[in-house]
């Protein structure tokens, strides 16, 4: 490993994250790693982890594809808004949202007032490599899922860019390295996370 690759890790290793003052809200495309990185970040900070997709599924006792098929996307979006509202009112922690959550102006307002948003920014090829083998994302159940992902990506990137913080997921960084990167970006935000 080169010296440059090691540097961010050693910088963060000197710092011990202290008290979390605001909920960290992971946003970004499907496959960006919101669930995987959010869960690992919560474990590192020893704070609760919540995932809005998971909360919706367990409340309905149905999978997301089943909810889309039975009740339609507008119903899912309504549940998503309610769940995000509720989770942000709960104790502080890490909240991973669904890929479409940050597109709604109302959700952006709720997230920005109740927490700090972190966009996990991955390019289209990285996202495709992570989602292509799985059938759990109803929006990609089209004739050409890659083209669908590309058009969602093009339409959504300008909205994700409104997040408070951006962290690059380049396809080589492990989940733990992504946690380091998120913590690194939070060094600029002592109103969110104290450092010892
Ligand atoms: N940095 C990473 N290194 C290796 N694998 C990763 C990384 N980030 C995510 N993954 C893997 O990519 C897949 C998709 O990640 P994940 O489910 O966390 O995405 P998501 O952003 O939560 O997507 P969705 O919006 O559909 O919920 C998972 O199998 C996850 O383990
Ligand atoms: O990008 C999206 O719109 C979605 C992403 C997933 O997290 C789920 O919330 C659902 O599959 C929709
Ligand atoms: Mg997820």
UniProtKB/TrEMBL annotation:
<dbReference type="GO" id="GO:0004765">
    <property type="term" value="F:shikimate kinase activity"/>
</dbReference>
<feature type="binding site">
    <location>
        <begin position="31"/>
        <end position="36"/>
    </location>
    <ligand>
        <name>ATP</name>
    </ligand>
</feature>
<dbReference type="GO" id="GO:0008652">
    <property type="term" value="P:amino acid biosynthetic process"/>
</dbReference>
<keyword id="KW-0547">Nucleotide-binding</keyword>
<feature type="binding site">
    <location>
        <position position="172"/>
    </location>
    <ligand>
        <name>ATP</name>
    </ligand>
</feature>
<dbReference type="GO" id="GO:0005829">
    <property type="term" value="C:cytosol"/>
</dbReference>
<dbReference type="GO" id="GO:0000287">
    <property type="term" value="F:magnesium ion binding"/>
</dbReference>
<keyword id="KW-0479">Metal-binding</keyword>
<comment type="pathway">
    <text>Metabolic intermediate biosynthesis; chorismate biosynthesis; chorismate from D-erythrose 4-phosphate and phosphoenolpyruvate: step 5/7.</text>
</comment>
<feature type="binding site">
    <location>
        <position position="77"/>
    </location>
    <ligand>
        <name>substrate</name>
    </ligand>
</feature>
<feature type="binding site">
    <location>
        <position position="35"/>
    </location>
    <ligand>
        <name>Mg(2+)</name>
    </ligand>
</feature>
<feature type="binding site">
    <location>
        <position position="53"/>
    </location>
    <ligand>
        <name>substrate</name>
    </ligand>
</feature>
<dbReference type="InterPro" id="IPR000623">
    <property type="entry name" value="Shikimate_kinase/TSH1"/>
</dbReference>
<keyword id="KW-0808">Transferase</keyword>
<feature type="binding site">
    <location>
        <position position="99"/>
    </location>
    <ligand>
        <name>substrate</name>
    </ligand>
</feature>
<keyword id="KW-0418">Kinase</keyword>
<keyword id="KW-0963">Cytoplasm</keyword>
<feature type="binding site">
    <location>
        <position position="156"/>
    </location>
    <ligand>
        <name>substrate</name>
    </ligand>
</feature>
<keyword id="KW-0067">ATP-binding</keyword>
<dbReference type="GO" id="GO:0009423">
    <property type="term" value="P:chorismate biosynthetic process"/>
</dbReference>
<dbReference type="InterPro" id="IPR023000">
    <property type="entry name" value="Shikimate_kinase_CS"/>
</dbReference>
<feature type="binding site">
    <location>
        <position position="137"/>
    </location>
    <ligand>
        <name>ATP</name>
    </ligand>
</feature>
<comment type="function">
    <text>Catalyzes the specific phosphorylation of the 3-hydroxyl group of shikimic acid using ATP as a cosubstrate.</text>
</comment>
<dbReference type="InterPro" id="IPR027417">
    <property type="entry name" value="P-loop_NTPase"/>
</dbReference>
<dbReference type="GO" id="GO:0005524">
    <property type="term" value="F:ATP binding"/>
</dbReference>
<protein>
    <recommendedName>
        <fullName>Shikimate kinase</fullName>
        <ecNumber>2.7.1.71</ecNumber>
    </recommendedName>
</protein>
<dbReference type="GO" id="GO:0009073">
    <property type="term" value="P:aromatic amino acid family biosynthetic process"/>
</dbReference>
<keyword id="KW-0028">Amino-acid biosynthesis</keyword>
<dbReference type="InterPro" id="IPR031322">
    <property type="entry name" value="Shikimate/glucono_kinase"/>
</dbReference>
<keyword id="KW-0460">Magnesium</keyword>
<comment type="similarity">
    <text>Belongs to the shikimate kinase family.</text>
</comment>
<comment type="subunit">
    <text>Monomer.</text>
</comment>
<dbReference type="Pfam" id="PF01202">
    <property type="entry name" value="SKI"/>
</dbReference>
<keyword id="KW-0057">Aromatic amino acid biosynthesis</keyword>
């Amino acid at each position: 490993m080169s010296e440059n690759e090691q540097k961010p890790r050693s910088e963060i290793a000197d710092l011990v994250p202290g008290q979390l003052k605001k909920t960290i809200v992971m946003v970004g495309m499907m496959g960006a790693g919101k669930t995987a990185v959010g869960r690992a970040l919560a474990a590192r900070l020893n704070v609760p982890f919540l995932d809005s997709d998971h909360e919706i599924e367990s409340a309905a006792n149905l999978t997301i594809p089943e909810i889309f098929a039975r009740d339609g996307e507008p119903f899912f979006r309504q549940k998503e808004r309610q769940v995000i509202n509720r989770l942000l009112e709960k104790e502080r922690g890490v909240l991973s949202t669904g890929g479409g959550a940050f597109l709604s102006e109302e959700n952006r307002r709720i997230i920005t007032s109740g927490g700090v948003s972190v966009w996990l920014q991955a390019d289209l090829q990285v996202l495709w490599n992570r989602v292509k083998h799985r059938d759990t994302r109803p929006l990609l159940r089209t004739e050409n899922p890659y083209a669908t992902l590309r058009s969602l990506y093009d339409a959504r990137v300008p909205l994700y860019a409104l997040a408070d913080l951006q962290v690059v997921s380049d396809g080589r960084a492990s989940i733990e390295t992504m946690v380091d990167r998120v913590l690194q970006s939070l060094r600029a935000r002592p109103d969110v996370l104290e450092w010892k």
